[in-house]
Design a protein that fits this description.
By secondary structure, this protein is mainly alpha-helical. The protein has a single domain, classed as CDP-alcohol phosphotransferase transmembrane (TM) domain (Four Helix Bundle (Hemerythrin (Met), subunit A)), CATH 1.20.120. Helices cover 85% and strands 0% of the residues. The two termini are 34 Å apart. 34% of the residues are buried.
């Protein structure tokens, strides 16, 4: 949704101007930020069990670290395949840990636990397929950034949902959020699937 938009350009420009120089001054490396993002996600998962508000705050912090590591790498001229691989793997763990924390919150309250368990599984499946369709498409030389529930949007929405709990502290807030994620992630995965398949078929026809 935000990928490739003016909003994304503005966001990364702010990081480059205001935060990246500070990180360079502190002597931090891109991989340091990736690890800090993982720790922030662990804190987010733990906090979601007892306080969705703080879970949301740490989720947004983990997202900030995730975007900062790439910005810092580009600024320092240290964009490496190893760093990109590390970042991608940590991203998957980050989302899993946060969703497990949300599951723990419903388990603690004994609130529709079987339904929530199924929703979490469907979200994880959808998130995995969103990432996989892009990775597979790019492996075939096809650009694939379509869809409204890419990882950045998912992290932001999870963070906002946790913060909204401070205003309306009822389990229904997080429960509805899970339903939105089930639909959003799987719809985005299907969107990407048909988008890439259509482009690849058209390329095959053009080659003929």
């Amino acid at each position: 949704m935000f990928k490739g938009t003016a909003l994304e350009v503005w966001y990364y420009e702010c990081l480059r101007k205001f935060l990246v120089p500070v990180l360079v001054k502190w002597g931090l490396e891109p991989n340091h930020l990736s690890i800090l993002g993982l720790f922030a996600s662990v804190l987010a998962g733990m906090c979601f069990v007892f306080s969705p508000f703080w879970g949301g705050m740490f989720t947004l912090l983990s997202g900030l670290f995730d975007t900062l590591d790439g910005s810092l790498a580009r600024f320092m001229g240290k964009s490496r395949k190893a760093g990109a691989f590390l970042d991608s793997v940590i991203d998957r763990y980050t989302e899993l840990i946060i969703l497990l924390g949300i599951w723990g919150y419903f388990y603690r309250l004994n609130y529709y636990v079987p339904v929530v368990s199924l929703l979490i599984i469907l979200i994880l499946f959808g998130s995995l397929m969103v990432s996989y369709t892009r990775a597979r498409a790019e492996g075939l030389g096809e650009r694939c950034i379509v869809g409204a529930f890419q990882r950045g949007e998912r992290i932001v929405l999870l963070g906002i949902a946790g913060i909204l709990y401070f205003i309306w502290p009822v389990p229904l807030v997080m429960f509805l959020t899970l339903w939105v994620f089930v639909v959003g992630t799987n719809a985005t995965a299907l969107w990407r699937f048909f988008h890439v398949l259509k482009n690849l078929k058209r390329q095959g026809q053009d080659a003929d």
